[in-house]
Write a structure and sequence with these properties.
single chain, 373 residues, mainly beta, 16-stranded antiparallel barrel, four-stranded antiparallel β-sheet
Length: 373
C-alpha cells in the first residue's frame, strides 16, 4: 500500500472507529505517553419566560494516552464538573450539582495494520449518581443537543463496548465499515428512590468514506444506532427510538490558510413509553460550520463559526430553537513536550417553549494543557 492509499485508509478508519483513540495512536510515538487536561467554563443566560435565568458549568477533564506497541494503544479519561442553575423567579434558590463523571478506558488494537482495527472500551462507574431532586434539575439543564456543554452527564453506570472497523481503498476512495455493541449495567439515578435503572444496550453500525480532492480531502460518514428497552426497578419501561447521524466535511488550503467546512445531522426517532404506550417526541439537530487554521510560527490559531438548528415534535417536526456560535482556539507550543490551548466562545440564539420564543446568549472560556512524555 503506497503512502497516498495508506493516508486515505487511515482517514476512513478514523471515520468509522473511535476517532480520538485512533488519533491518539497515530500522534503518540511508540512507548510515549501524553497527558491532557484543561479548565473549561460555559455559561448561558435566557430571557424571561423559560423559568430559567442562567446555567453555568465548570469542568476539569483529565486524560492520558499511551501507545504501547505499533499496534496497541490505550487511553483513559475522567472529568470533574460543577453545574449551577439559577431560576428567574424571585425567592427560588439556585440549585447545583458537582462531582466526578464516569471514567472511560479504551484499548485499540490494529489487527491488520491500517486496515482492521479492534476496540474495547469500558465505562467505569465513578460518576455521581443517586441525585436529589434539586441536583437532578440542575443536571438536566446541561443535557441538551442544541446547547453544547462540556459535560452533559455525570454518571450512567458500568458498561462495555466492543467494536471493529475495516477500511480498504476502492476506486480512489477509502471505504470504511464499522460496528460496535455496548452492553450496559444498572445504576441508581435518584437518592429518594431505591431502585436501579438499566439503559438498553446499543448496537451501532457505521460507514465512512474518505478521498483526496485536489489539494484537499472530503470525508463522509453515516451512523445508525438501535437500542434495547430501558428498565427501571426490574421492569421494562421505555423503548428508545433509533438514531441516525449523517456527517460530511471538506478541508482544503486557501493561500497560507487551512479551511474546513463541515456539517452533521442527528435525527432521534420517537421513543415509546411501555406503560401506557405513549410516544415521545422526535428530534433533529442540523449543524453546519467552518473552521480555519492560521499558522503563526510554531503556533496555530483556529477561528470557527457554527450554526445549529433544532426541530422536534411527536407527529411532525417543528422549529424548536437555533444557536449561532463564534469561537477561537490558539495552540501555543511552549516547547517540544508542552503546549497550551486557550479558547474563547460566544453564543446567541433562541428556544421555542410553549409556543413562545425565548432568547439566549452565552460565553465559554477554556485553557487546555498537553504534555508529551
Amino acid at each position: 500500500m503506497n503512502g497516498a492509499a495508506r493516508a486515505l485508509v487511515l482517514g476512513a478508519l478514523v471515520a468509522v472507529a473511535i476517532p480520538c483513540a485512533l488519533r491518539a495512536q497515530g500522534d503518540v510515538p511508540v512507548g510515549g505517553v501524553r497527558f491532557l487536561s484543561s479548565l473549561e467554563v460555559r455559561s448561558v443566560s435566557f430571557d424571561s419566560g423559560l423559568g430559567l435565568k442562567s446555567a453555568t458549568e465548570l469542568a476539569v477533564p483529565l486524560g492520558a494516552m499511551w501507545t504501547a506497541t505499533p499496534r496497541l494503544a490505550f487511553d483513559i479519561g475522567v472529568r470533574y464538573a460543577s453545574v449551577s442553575r439559577t431560576p428567574d423567579a424571585a425567592g427560588q434558590a439556585k440549585t447545583t450539582v458537582s462531582g466526578l463523571t464516569d471514567t472511560q478506558v479504551r484499548a485499540i488494537y490494529q489487527v491488520v495494520p491500517d486496515v482492521v482495527v479492534l476496540t474495547v472500551a469500558a465505562n467505569l462507574p465513578t460518576g455521581k449518581t443517586k441525585l436529589t431532586a434539586d441536583q437532578l434539575v440542575a443536571a438536566g439543564v446541561v443535557a441538551s443537543d442544541l446547547i453544547p456543554f462540556p459535560v452533559a452527564s455525570f454518571g450512567s453506570g458500568a458498561n462495555v463496548t466492543t467494536g471493529i472497523a475495516v477500511a480498504l481503498p476502492v476506486l480512489g476512495w477509502a471505504i470504511g465499515v464499522g460496528g460496535s455493541y455496548r452492553l450496559t449495567g444498572e445504576y441508581t439515578p435518584l437518592a429518594a428512590v431505591d431502585s436501579s435503572y438499566k439503559p438498553g444496550s446499543e448496537l451501532r453500525l457505521r460507514v465512512g468514506a474518505d478521498r483526496v480532492v485536489g489539494q484537499g480531502r472530503v470525508s463522509l460518514g453515516f451512523t445508525y444506532s438501535t437500542f434495547a428497552d430501558d428498565a427501571f426497578g426490574g421492569a421494562q419501561i421505555y423503548r428508545p427510538g433509533k438514531r441516525y447521524i449523517t456527517q460530511g466535511s471538506w478541508s482544503f488550503p486557501v493561500g497560507n490558510l487551512g479551511l474546513a467546512l463541515y456539517a452533521w445531522d442527528l435525527y432521534r426517532d420517537g421513543g415509546t413509553v411501555l406503560v401506557g404506550g405513549s410516544t415521545t417526541e422526535k428530534q433533529n439537530v442540523l449543524t453546519a460550520g467552518a473552521t480555519a487554521s492560521v499558522q503563526i510560527g510554531r503556533n496555530v490559531l483556529r477561528p470557527q463559526i457554527e450554526y445549529r438548528i433544532q426541530s422536534a415534535g411527536v407527529s411532525t417536526l417543528a422549529a424548536a430553537g437555533h444557536l449561532l456560535s463564534l469561537s477561537a482556539r490558539y495552540q501555543l507550543a511552549l516547547n517540544e513536550r508542552f503546549a497550551l490551548q486557550p479558547a474563547l466562545r460566544f453564543d446567541t440564539g433562541n428556544l421555542i417553549y410553549n409556543g413562545a420564543t425565548i432568547g439566549l446568549s452565552g460565553w465559554g472560556l477554556s485553557v487546555g494543557l498537553r504534555a508529551s512524555m
